[in-house]
Description:
Elements: E1 18-19, E2 27-29, E3 34-38, E4 44-48, E5 54-58, E6 67-71, E7 77-84, E8 95-98, E9 101-103, E10 123-125, E11 132-135, E12 146-148, H1 150-159, E13 166-170, H2 175-184, H3 195-203
Parallel strand pairs: 5-13, 11-12
Antiparallel strand pairs: 1-8, 2-3, 3-4, 5-6, 6-7, 7-12, 8-13, 9-10, 10-11
Amino acid sequence: MKKILALGIAIMLSAQWIHAEDTKSKVLPLSKSKFAVMGDNGEENIVDLAGQDYIVVSVREQGADGAAYAIDSDGVIWWAAVISSGAKGHETPSGIFTVFRKERFYMSKAHPEASGINNMDFSLWFTQRGHAIHMGNDDAMSHGCIHVGPKGAESMFNWAKKDKTKIVITREHYMPFAYYDLLKAGYKETSKTPAHIKAAIRAFPPVKPKMGE
Length: 213
C-alpha cells in the first residue's frame, strides 16, 4: 500500500472507452470505485474501477468539489488536491477516460504564455481535443483543462501510467466517499481551507467504508 502523502487539500481505457463528452451530469459516483455513466441515448453503464489506478476529478463548479483525488489499485486515496476546471463556455467534458499521453514540459499551442514560460507542465492528456490535468493556477478557471498546484501535479504525473491510469471527470460530489481516507491521512479543517472545500464536505454525509475497504 502506498504511503499517503501530505494532502494538498488540507491546506486550503487504453482508448476513451466509455465517456460522455458534455457538461451535463453524466458521471455519477456510486461508491469510491463505482460510477454510473449516462449515455446520450439514455442508457446507463456501471463502471467499477476497483483494482485499478485512477484519478477522480470533481470539477470546480456548483454542486461539485473542486478537487482531484488519486486512488491506487489498493483502493487508497493517496493524494487529494484543490483544482480549477473549465470556465463557462470552456467547460471540461464529463466522462471516464484514459491517460494516453504524458508531457513533463509543455507550452499550450492554443493559448501560449506571452512570457515564454511553460503553462502546461506535468500534463496528463485525457482527450484528443486537448484536455489535460497539468500544473497551473488552481484558483483560476481554465480553457477546459484541470489545473493542479505544483506538488499535486508533479506527484500525480510521476504516478500515472500512460495507456493505463483512468481519469474520471464528474460534476457531482465525490467527497462523501473520500472523507474517511482524508481523515486517516490527517486532514484537518483550518482557516486556510478553501471555502468551496468546506462546502463540499458539508454537502452530503460522509459514506463509511465497508469492511475490507
